[in-house]
Amino acid sequence: MEKLKTGGVYTGTVEGYSSEGLGIVRLDGAVVFVPGTVRGETVELKITRVMKTAAAGELVRVHEPSPERSEPECPHFGVCGGCDFQHLTYTEELWAKRQRVQDALERLGGTDLQVEEILGARNPFRYRNKSQYPVGADGTVGFYRARSHQVVPIQRCLIQSEVSDKTAQAVREWMRRYKISAYDETTGKGLVRHIYVRVNRVGQSLCCVVANSRQVPREPELAAYVCAAAPSTVGVVLNTNTRRGNVILGDRYRTLWGQDFLMDTLCGLEFKLSVPSFYQVNRDQAEVLYHKALEFAGLTGQETVLDLYCGIGTITLCMADSAARVLGAEIVPAAIDDARENAVRNHIDNAEFFCADAADIAAKLEREGLRPDVITVDPPRKGLSEEVVASVAGMRPRRVVYVSCDPATLGRDIKRFAGLGYRAVRACAVDMFPATCHVETVVLLSKGEVDSKKIRVEFSLEDMDM
Fold first, then answer.
1. Helix (H, G, I), strand (E, B) or coil at 453
2. Helix, coil or strand: residue 110
3. What is the distance between the alpha carbons of residues 97 and 431, in angstroms, rounded to a whole number?
4. Contacts by residues 112-116 (CB-CB < 8 Å, ≥ 24 positions apart)
């Protein structure tokens, strides 16, 4: 690292991509991360920062563009921090995401399991059914600049639904017309913090305005502006968040007009979505993901399935028709209420839901002697705790289906499962978030005999190779 100097200009070849979608260039053995570059290109770059084990750079010139380079369709790309890959063809984006999962399985998971495929989206635009627009202190509505809380004014985003964009602009016009203040996170003063919109399969929408107060001026006019811009709106809700920090939603909700929920269909089932409900943001790809999870589960109709981190019961209920009994666990009470309602709504009578922390419910069911045939987990980005992994393994299911939104924590947890006798035998990536660096993965873990000495030797050899 001593040879690289901040401000220095160097020439190198892009070898691949980081987990954040940055191009990787090696200079004298040092890794330099360069945004906006494409694998295979020879580029001139300027070092902007030298760190202990790597460096950051910016693109100066591309000597010969890769055939996989694409002209970004969004004029805000590179300024707004929402998208990472609009400078790539979709084929190259899928390669980068599949490779990211493969690297995590090998380096962090200690396995040579190959990612079978990556399932791309038929339409990589306008796919998000949930949109969250931050509001800047000056009333700007848009999205954050990369690695900052500065709001970039954006009226049209190519990965949000058009209904969401129109709704956000309607709220902005309401604020401007009636001089409604925006929240300033540096002072803690002002009212409107975020605009939150859900949209269902048929174009109906639910609007939630997040405010630093239990009420805002001109509430009837707010509803009128929203409904005029998006006539298929089913409800306008006010959420109160008076806490400092970057958590979007508070705990209090009040319906200003219409209803406080939205109905949607997924995998042939109907689901009720309240504002805080966890629901995959790409409906079409969620169906692809859940069908793959169902395939990995290998159900015959005789099994008991336990679904941890079940949310409003999407995976649980999608598996109910193929199992004898399904159980879902989730820590959010409102989500469990919705899950139970969703089971009744879809005439599913072999599903049970528990409101508890995943580690607690897993340990409780293990103590009670529950022996599910299949356990599915779909944890948040931080993955599973060691306690959850131990409890899952302690119930001795034949198969564990792990749905992950973060390859790094997935790799870590696969290694933990391996130490408890569960080997990763299948893996598939699903592109749930086109244009961004995020990727979903489904992994099947199977119970097998463990030779602890053999595992230690294999890990030792891998470390030596690294």
1. helix
2. coil
3. 8
4. 113/424, 113/425, 113/426, 113/427, 114/427, 115/427, 115/428, 115/429, 115/441, 116/426, 116/427, 116/428
Q: What is the CA radius of gyration of the chain?
A: 24
Pairing of strands 304-308, 374-377: parallel
Cα of 147 vs its chain's centroid, Å: 17
Distance of alpha carbon 376 from alpha carbon 280, whole angstroms: 16
Domains 9-62 and 130-266 share a fold: yes
3-state secondary structure of 197: strand
Q: Give the CATH number of domain 130-266; options: 1.10.340.30, 2.40.50.1070, 2.40.160.20, 2.40.50.100.
A: 2.40.50.1070
Q: What confidence score (pLDDT) does residue 142 get?
A: 97
Selected catalytic residue, list 80, 157, 405, 437: 405
pTM assigned to the model: 0.91
User: What's the confidence (pLDDT) of residue 224?
Assistant: 98
Evaluate whether 42 touches 12 at the Cβ level (below 8 Å).
yes
The residue assigned the tokens 């209420």 is 337
Distance CA 92, CA 39 (A): 9
What DSSP state is assigned to residue 106?
I
- The amino acid at 235: G
Q: What are phi and psi of 94, to 5 degrees?
A: -65, -40
- Return contacts of 97-102, CB within 8 angstroms, 24+ apart: 97/429, 97/431, 97/437, 97/439, 98/429, 98/439, 99/16, 99/17, 100/17, 100/19, 100/407, 100/437, 100/439, 101/407, 101/410, 101/427, 101/429, 101/439, 101/441
Class of domain 94-122+282-465: alpha beta
What residues in the chain have per-residue pLDDT under 50?
A: 1, 449-466
Q: Between the CA of residue 15 and those of 2, 24, 108, what are the distances in Å? A: 22, 6, 20
Supply the pLDDT for residue 360. Answer: 87
CATH of domain 9-62: 2.40.50.140
Angstrom distance (rounded) from CA 379 to CA 321: 23
| Structure confidence at residue 466 (pLDDT) | 30
pLDDT at site 370? 84
* 83 noted as active-site residue: no
The number of residues making up the chain comes to 466
β-strands 304-308, 325-330 pairing: parallel
Q: Domain-by-domain residue ranges, the chain?
A: 9-62, 94-122+282-465, 130-266
- Per the CB < 8 A criterion, the answer to whether 148 and 141 are in contact is no
Question: Going by DSSP bridges, is the β-strand pair 304-308/261-266 parallel, antiparallel, or unpaired?
Answer: unpaired
Give the model's pLDDT for residue 29: 84
Cβ neighbors of 224 (< 8 A, separation 6 or more) are none
Q: What is the pLDDT of residue 175?
A: 98
Check if the beta carbon of residue 404 is closer than 8 Å to that of residue 441: yes
Which tokens go with 242? 């008076």
